[in-house]
Amino acid sequence: MDSRSVAKHVEDPEYVARPHKLYTLVFPVDTATSKVLLGMKKRGFGKDKLNGFGGKVEPHETIEQGAVRELQEESGLTATHIKKIGLLFFYFENDPVTMEVHVYQSDRYDGRPMETDEMRPEWFGVHEMPFERMWADDSLWWPYALENKRFVGRFWFKADQVTITRQELREVDSLEF
Ligand SMILES: Nc1nc2c([nH]c(=O)n2[C@H]2C[C@H](O)[C@@H](COP(=O)(O)OP(=O)(O)OP(=O)(O)O)O2)c(=O)[nH]1
């Protein structure tokens, strides 16, 4: 088990024992206009979906460092402040590895969004999210983010990466373990 994983604090023992791979996901927010920056993923896992910016946490870095790095690489923005808003666990049918995704918002960053090899960025109103073009779970937990609530979600997907067969989602007081 990766020592940076927080699975043991939030999952039941049966799932804690599974291998966990750590990921980040950052949503840059423009508080003045109430818009959030999403990127259209141009390749790889989640291709053609709109999402925040993130990816795998490298072995040598903290989760937060990974979040800032992936945001920079994929959007061109350099976050000067990020805050953790949620924790998501994804289980895919026929895949023994749990995806443990640490979700952040950033309302302070330098630079301007730019298209990269991986993402085409676009601003959306925080109340007008294009959920039909996003991962199926996003419409379920985004309301927590809007209300400034911290959340933990667990979602079981079919291999089609679209169908959710089981879900758990709850507000938590803190994401510091
Ligand atoms: N909003 C949302 N994001 C998700 C879901 N599932 C899921 O993996 N993600 C995010 C977490 C990561 O930010 C991203 C997957 O990481 P990735 O495969 O792009 O990682 P990477 O950039 O390191 O990969 P690579 O192409 O460079 O090898 O997708 C989901 O259901 N909803």
What share of the residues does DSSP label as strand, in percent? 35-45%
**Tally of extended strands?**
8
Q: Judging from the principal axes of the Cα atoms, what is the shape? A: globular
Mean pLDDT: 97
Architecture, CATH level 2?
Alpha-Beta Complex
Tally of alpha and pi helices: 4
Question: Sheet bearing the most strands, described?
Answer: 8 strands, mixed
**What is the distance, rounded to the nearest whole angstrom, between the alpha carbons of the first and last residues?**
16 Å
What name goes with the CATH superfamily? Answer: Nucleoside Triphosphate Pyrophosphohydrolase
Helix content: 10-25%
The level 1 CATH classification is Alpha Beta
Unreliable segments of 5+ consecutive residues: none
Q: What ligands can be seen in this structure?
A: 8-OXO-2'-deoxyguanosine-5'-triphosphate
Task: Write down the domain tally.
Answer: 1
CATH topology, which one? Nucleoside Triphosphate Pyrophosphohydrolase
Radius of gyration using CA atoms only: 15 Å
Q: What class would the helix/strand composition place it in?
A: alpha+beta
Order of helices and strands: HHEEEHEEEHEE
